[in-house]
Amino acid sequence: xxxxxxxxxxxxxxxxxxxxxxxxxxxxxxxHGKLGLMCAxxxxxxxxxxxxxxxxxxYVIVFRxxxxxxxxxxxxxxxxxxxxxxSTVQFLWYFRSAFGQWRYKLAPLVGVIVACPxxxxxxxxxxxxxxxxxxxxxxxYPILDGLLSVLAIMMLMLxxxxxxxxxxxxxxxxxxxxxxxxxxxGLGNVQGWSQxxxxxxxxxxxxxxxxxxxFSRMAKMKRLHPLEQDYYKAKLMxxxxx
Length: 242
Hints:
By secondary structure, the chain is mainly alpha-helical. It has one domain (2-234). 74% of the residues lie in helices and 0% in strands. The protein has 9 helices and no strands.
């Protein structure tokens, strides 16, 4: 129980720090326009994930019970994922004319690589060891991480050479590290590999450090208004009419 409490406090510190840096980013970049909406969505995402950790701490520290699967903590985390996905997709949709290039079509392979091992390796145990809803909750995390990783990689390719490339490089690395952690830990909990998965919790912390660096770099930029300022600096495609 002491180890669980220490882990919760550590995650509370890291996700709380990321939330503050994301809020600082929104104050700097602004919340208007498509880029502003994406930044606001990223802040909301980190805030919900932080609140999910707070809910987990309530279970473990206040009630002194193991956090059930699923729980309020999972609901808050999934809301965080939804905010990140919706805000990033609305931003990328603005540049949709570029996605006919072949290199962008390779990005979804990341999601397939993440999803297939989870679905295949977990299938034999789904109906035998733990309730189906608990297994589905564990396995939803790496699949959602894979989706966010695809979106982050598409952002990197789209704005290679642009002024938001540097922070998104840290976002992509952070999401990939968190994806690895969620993949191994999700499968480990379904398959019963409790001892083997412990070192992979460090990947969460490294991932949140990378996310924090990305938020920090975004917070140091000048206000990007209009959005086309970065669009033209990227020099990747013709200006959109829409």
